Inverse folding.
């Protein structure tokens, strides 16, 4: 009996093994006891034959590759009954799949598989799409509405679907009839009506009427953007909608509105001056409809991104371009402006040349000032050499109480003694030593205060020096450095 149970467990029929064991045990009236060893051996055999997660993933991956690459219809039909839904989806995506297999998978329990069947535009039977149009999953019905093989009658049934996204996709299906399109222009949802008037077969007068009605009844910025981008939108409606979008809370909506060529110039000038986001102001500076006066006004104190677009804008006044071309960072942008003619380009090149000459003169002036400073420093060094030779300055320093190098000496002692162990032949002993730290610091002001002769000495030396922009304290520092080097 045990061998039969183990054989059944190797075939992954664990439930059968347990049922067989219970039935055999219960059938033997005299044997009501089963050894623990037999149960333990059965359990170990069943568990050891279960596939590991890694092995399952490997097997499923091999099956997916086989279902993707095979052109054998019998193998595809076998894979269509695989327990893994991902492999069944791979079967639907196989170019050799038949309509019969797709019809079978249209009843699949996985909505993901049914969506993939509804997306198939090559092999699926229109009758299968008609059945999937009544699927309980809205995603399946959405792909049926997008499928170009869907029958017209099915599309007409989907035009009454409760999901707005499904009705919105119907005008984009090439098989949708004009009657369905006109019906959708009276839909209760503005996004569906906007999608309907985007169809090329809708008459222009009907499209304008629907667009005007959408503008009056909708406040959704994305629907209003669709109204702005529609070619049949009346000009007065277009400008009113753009004025609404210019004040929208969404930055992306304001950026797209600021780039529209029909945006009123007054609103563009207001956005360039008052909008809180620099990206919106930069987009306004790029729009050729922006007033030239507003561009010229903001070219003096704007962000670099805004100045970049002002330099490229064909509506920018030439005087503003003449100012920006003198700034090296925006020079290439100015010369790429499409409004420039040959005479204006020559004027800009002359301005660039003048700015370069001015910059060269500034650099030369800076070099001259550097040479003068170096000459003064050299003359001061010569004065120090003369004073050192003529005066016994060391005597004055010794009177001030300072040591060599013209510095104060400060001694500090550590608060904790340092203990040191000295070993001897009979043991050893500890010694304590207080560490002493000596620091030196120059103090030329104290020298001047303590030694009156030093002040008069320095003054007499400075009178002979060619550099008149140096104090006694400044003069003393190189003096000490020179004398005690």
């Amino acid at each position: 009996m045990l061998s039969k149970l183990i054989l059944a467990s190797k075939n992954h029929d664990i439930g059968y093994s347990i049922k067989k064991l219970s039935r055999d045990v219960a059938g033997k009236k005299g044997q009501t006891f089963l050894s623990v060893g037999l149960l333990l051996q059965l359990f170990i055999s069943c568990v050891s034959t279960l596939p590991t997660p890694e092995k399952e993933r490997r097997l499923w991956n091999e099956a997916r590759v086989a279902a993707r690459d095979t052109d054998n219809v019998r193998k595809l039909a076998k894979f269509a009954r695989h327990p893994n839904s991902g492999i069944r989806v791979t079967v639907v995506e196989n170019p050799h799949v038949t309509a019969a297999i797709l019809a079978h998978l249209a009843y699949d329990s996985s909505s993901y598989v049914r969506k993939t069947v509804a997306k198939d535009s090559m092999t699926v039977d229109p009758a299968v799409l008609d059945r999937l149009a009544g699927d309980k999953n809205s995603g399946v019905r959405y792909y049926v509405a997008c499928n170009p093989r869907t029958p017209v009658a099915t599309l007409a049934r989907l035009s009454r679907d409760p999901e707005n996204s499904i009705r919105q996709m119907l005008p984009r299906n090439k098989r949708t009839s004009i009657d369905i399109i006109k019906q959708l222009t009276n839909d209760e949802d503005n996004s569906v009506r906007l999608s309907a008037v985007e169809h090329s077969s809708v008459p222009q007068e009907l499209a304008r009427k629907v667009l005007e009605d959408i503008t009056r009844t909708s406040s959704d910025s994305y629907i209003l953007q669709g109204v702005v981008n529609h070619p049949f939108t009346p000009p007065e409606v277009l400008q009113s909608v753009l004025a609404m979008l210019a004040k929208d809370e969404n930055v992306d909506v304001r950026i797209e509105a600021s780039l529209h060529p029909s945006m009123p110039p007054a609103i563009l000038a207001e956005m360039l001056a008052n909008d809180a986001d620099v990206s919106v102001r930069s987009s306004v500076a790029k729009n050729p409809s922006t007033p030239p006066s507003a561009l010229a006004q903001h070219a003096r104190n704007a962000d670099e991104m805004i100045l970049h677009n002002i330099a490229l804008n064909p509506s920018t006044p030439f005087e503003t371009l003449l100012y920006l071309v003198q700034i090296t960072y925006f020079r290439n942008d100015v010369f790429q402006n499409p409004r420039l003619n040959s005479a204006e380009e020559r004027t800009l090149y002359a301005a660039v040349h003048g700015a370069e000459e001015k910059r060269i003169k500034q650099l030369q002036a800076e070099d001259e000032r550097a040479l003068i400073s170096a000459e003064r420093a050299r003359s001061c060094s010569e004065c120090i050499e003369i004073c050192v030779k003529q005066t016994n300055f060391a005597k004055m320093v010794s009177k001030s109480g300072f040591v060599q190098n013209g510095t104060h000496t400060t001694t500090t002692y550590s608060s904790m003694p340092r203990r040191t162990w000295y070993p001897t032949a009979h043991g050893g002993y500890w010694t304590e030593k207080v560490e002493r730290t000596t620091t030196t610091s120059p103090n030329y002001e104290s020298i001047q205060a303590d030694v009156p002769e030093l002040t008069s000495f320095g003054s007499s030396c400075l009178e002979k020096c060619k550099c008149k922009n140096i104090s006694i304290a400044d003069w003393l520092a190189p003096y000490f450095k020179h004398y005690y080097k």
About this structure: The longest strand covers residues 407-413. The chain has a mean pLDDT of 78. The two ends are 108 Å apart (CA to CA).
